[in-house]
Amino acid sequence: MNQQHVQPTSAIPPHNCLLAALPAQDRERLLKHCDLIALNFADVLYCAGDSISHVYFPIESIISLVKPVAGSSGLEVGLVGNEGLLGVTLILEIDRAPFHALIQGAGTALRIAAPPFLKELKQSPALQLLLKQYLYVSINQLAQTAACTRFHVVEKRLARWLLMTQDRAHADTFHITHVFLAYILGVRRVGITKAANSLLKQKLISYRRGIVTIVDRAGLEAAACNCYQADNNIYALILGGVEK
Amino acid sequence: MNQQHVQPTSAIPPHNCLLAALPAQDRERLLKHCDLIALNFADVLYCAGDSISHVYFPIESIISLVKPVAGSSGLEVGLVGNEGLLGVTLILEIDRAPFHALIQGAGTALRIAAPPFLKELKQSPALQLLLKQYLYVSINQLAQTAACTRFHVVEKRLARWLLMTQDRAHADTFHITHVFLAYILGVRRVGITKAANSLLKQKLISYRRGIVTIVDRAGLEAAACNCYQADNNIYALILGGVEK
DNA sequence: ATTTTTTAGTGCGCCAACACACAGAGTTCA
DNA sequence: TGAACTCTGTGTGTTGGCGCACTAAAAAAT
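Structure tokens for the assembled complex are given below, as produced in the milestone run.
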């Protein structure tokens, strides 16, 4: 892990939707214990089974949750950007990460050690509720991914994943290689090459050597399975009050 | 839904592991609000999105949690027997079922309406902890199923499912058809026929017209993917104190 | 006892994804 | 400038599961 502390010099205050949704007082108490850190591509924040040392609120960074599989590579079961947080299961009072957590998109995050987080959690019913809601959404999205992985072809799954990442990257262009995508979606690299090439030919995306650009977002949404919409719907339904 | 009230006449007291793990006082308070009911095969307790009217503690019944998929049939993402309960997400204070819940194995269950359950939940830290632990286990098993569904062939998945069902049925023989299994595992009926036939030829199971018998449990464990063991491990790790 | 319904087994062509291997092109570094 | 490395594209044969259609046999209903 190669995390650096970052001076919070930017004029725009760092933004995480869940933090923003907290009452000002609760948020301030929490922020006092937070560090703004930079997360680098492929950093591993923790592995399944590890103790949860810190909670992360991504700002621009994107975190992949990966379920490891004996013998196989693994399978992404969740994606965390500034709409969420990493470490939500702490609300279940179990100090054990259910999944690998690795950085899929470099950027900053607010980090807080588990002990102060748990202390604030006890004091803040608003934070408790937010975590419960986010956990509920995560469970729904996990099941959605399970079904999607079973029934939908790679091209549609890839389109969905690109949309989810674009939402969290807040940019049309981001860094990703076919190899990494293959790992995430649990398919061969060649499968990604083929699917990506198809999306390219349809002029929905463009890419070269690790840089993907969304060209036609509406088209990509049409090319994706509606699991993408389903995920958004459940988030809006449960966490609708949270500003995006 | 065709549920009948059942006289709790049996000499052996009905047994649900989670209820049994509660302190006697908390359990008694809860049981006062419980009805012992009979659940019939294919009963639908609720659909995804429904309000959670009741919580169910299976005794001999087995409940399937199914994530519906637009266009496709659905995919089982959880199995609840007397080692668990249905309605665990109520602890997240969200009155919305994340999955379909349908009876996969007929039998009795203790049922309690949501309002008294929530009231008892507030009063019983032991019940709160148990639900948190069970929810954590369920999340892990959900991810396990997601990965299993992606990477393992039907025959191994079928073997795993038969073992899970045998555990919950507490019997070597139970009622199940190929059509139902196909729905549950998200494959064609013919795929089940083929896989079941293979297990039959290996003398691990026997079956005829809706009745399956486990013949060689050790052999079946060897034929299953280790997702079966992984599920058991996480349950034992988190809920190890709970008697089986 | 005959018909109808339910459940299981078989055959055929098809396709998405697999495994493995290698080629070409851009990037980095010496 | 050339070598080493990284990333993407292509080719060949294989396979697990799909869709569809039909047969066979057991159970239930009339």
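Chain A is about 45% helix and 20% strand. The interface with chain B takes residues 67, 69-72, 74-75, 77, 89, 91-94, 96, 98-99, 129, 132-133, 135-136, 139-140, 142-151, 186, 226, 230, 238 of chain A (CB under 8 Å). Further analysis is deferred to the final report.
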